[in-house]
């Protein structure tokens, strides 16, 4: 099982909250991310972020928390909206920690989800989705900046993120944060009657 950096999910959420409160440079910005990778589908281009950018301040009404088994229905709905697929035994995975997942809430209402994995220098963001009704409001940008700042604080030098090359809005977001393509992957399927 891959975990978010090192330590418990509660420690990571507390550290994210602390990063949100910190003023780390002279003009009041947030920590900068040095590296990142974006894997895109179909057929998948990988982006490498080597330029540093200063993240904007967190959106105060948006919070992150660990998703538990009771959140399986909400997480499943968001994944269906974002990707059109179901995850087998999502409640079980949330209960046993095999799919460390964060739930994104605005004013207490669920608006997004993502899984964060890591093994030291290499980390990944997967299943990153913002409810279509809430897109274009800065939630995804804020969330990605906060999570990348947390991963950097945990020692990550690379962050993987998969995005469909057909999802121009998400690609634009990632590119605006400094991610660049470094490779392409193709996926093939054989229909089985």
From TrEMBL:
GO molecular function, one term: acyltransferase activity, transferring groups other than amino-acyl groups
Residue span, N-acetyltransferase domain: 62-193
Family matches, as CDD domains: NAT_SF
Record-linked InterPro entries: Acyl_CoA_acyltransferase (IPR016181), GNAT_dom (IPR000182)
Keyword terms: Transferase
Pfam families cross-referenced by the UniProt entry: Acetyltransf_1 (PF00583)
Keyword Transferase: yes
Protein name (database record): GNAT family N-acetyltransferase
Organism for this UniProt entry: Goekera deserti
Organism placement in taxonomy: Bacteria, Bacillati, Actinomycetota, Actinomycetes, Geodermatophilales
